[in-house]
Design brief:
The chain is built from 12 helices and 11 strands. Helix 7 links the parallel strand 5 and strand 6.
Length: about 325
């Protein structure tokens, strides 16, 4: 792997010779372009960056980024990324997953990677549908979704991915949009800078099987509730609307003229508990109206690989180097003829 002529990497250096094969108009193209343009600013050699994916449309990602990559097993990308991050803490490890891959068969692996605070960055492309397998409803599909597998409408109550990550005590949780290049890039920048597990939900349009699912937020910017640290939460064409906290610890949308700015909730992504972030996340279960985007939570907690290495060093200091042969023959053994 070699850099461009001046020795500095560019977006072109992160493009492979593979033909990008998503459906024309898919939101994955915009995300790929944003990531390829963002990676050079990290100043990290390409051989020290790894993208790991599961199965699904999003899982093609490692083929198109000129770094190391693993196209792994359905739902197991966080588990494989955990093993790599623990054994190679010098690497920048990224997981790319879809809402079906991450939240259905992979839900168990996702929540444990987040609660352990493994030093990996998880990008979850949410298009509210199974795209690769031709449009079945997914764990984020709205209630009543009609398609080939649910001709009378889905009966499953959908996940709110951000609320789920906060419930798993993730230390970094954010949401962005495929077509908002500037916001997505800044969110990626923040995720990379975070020490520990970072979870980023990206609204990604599937124009074949679920076109327009996020139009209320993608096309109508007045519906984007932008979260800014230390600022009262306001939004709208003229910031005429806002968010306040209710006595039951839930949040509601209000007209600022009716309640005054002093009544508005001030965003604190560094709050020690995820309660306020969870209240904000539940303002919009599905993006059919005003929807929060940005960083919901960014807190410090010991990182798993460092805790593990400290244990290993302490064990070595207290017990010395182990004897594998002695360990294997310790206790009850038997011989098979």
């Amino acid at each position: 792997m070699s850099a461009s002529g001046n020795g500095h990497l560019t977006a072109k250096d992160f493009k492979t010779d593979q033909e990008v094969r998503w459906c024309p108009g898919c939101g994955d193209y915009a995300i790929l372009a944003a990531v390829q343009s963002f990676l050079p600013e990290l100043g990290i050699p390409r051989e020290n960056i790894v993208f790991i994916s599961g199965i699904g449309c999003a899982a093609r990602f490692p083929y198109y980024v000129e770094t190391y990559g693993i196209h792994s097993i359905h739902g197991r990308a966080p588990a494989i990324a955990t093993g790599l991050a623990l054994s190679r803490p010098d690497l920048s490890v990224w997981v790319v997953s879809g809402d079906g891959d991450a939240l259905s068969i992979g839900g168990n692996h996702l929540i444990h990677a987040l609660r352990r605070n493994v030093n990996i960055k998880i990008l979850m492309f949410n298009n509210q549908i199974y795209g690769l397998t031709k449009g079945q409803y997914s764990p984020t599909s709205p209630l009543g979704t009609i398609n080939k597998t649910t001709p009378m409408g889905s009966l499953d109550w959908p996940f709110n991915p951000v609320a789920l990550a906060l419930g798993a005590e993730a230390t970094f949780v954010a949401r962005s949009i495929d077509t908002d290049r500037a916001h997505l890039t800044e969110t990626l920048r923040r995720a990379h800078a975070h020490q520990g597990a970072a979870f980023v939900e990206i609204y990604q349009n599937c124009n074949v099987y679920n076109d327009g699912a996020f139009d209320a937020v993608r096309d109508q910017k007045e519906n984007r509730i932008r979260l800014e640290q230390g600022q009262p939460i306001r939004f709208g064409a003229e910031d005429e609307r806002g968010v306040r906290l209710l006595p039951d610890a839930s949040a509601e949308i209000v007209d600022v003229a009716d309640v005054g700015e002093d009544a508005l909730l001030v965003h604190d992504e560094h709050a020690p508990t995820p309660s306020l972030a969870a209240a904000i996340a539940r303002l919009s279960h599905t993006p059919h109206g005003p929807t929060p985007i940005g960083v919901f939570r960014d807190v410090e907690r010991p990182v798993y690989d460092r805790l593990m290495n400290e244990q290993l060093e302490r064990a070595a200091a207290e017990q010395g180097d182990g004897d594998l042969a002695q360990l294997l023959h310790a206790g009850d053994t038997w011989t098979i003829d």
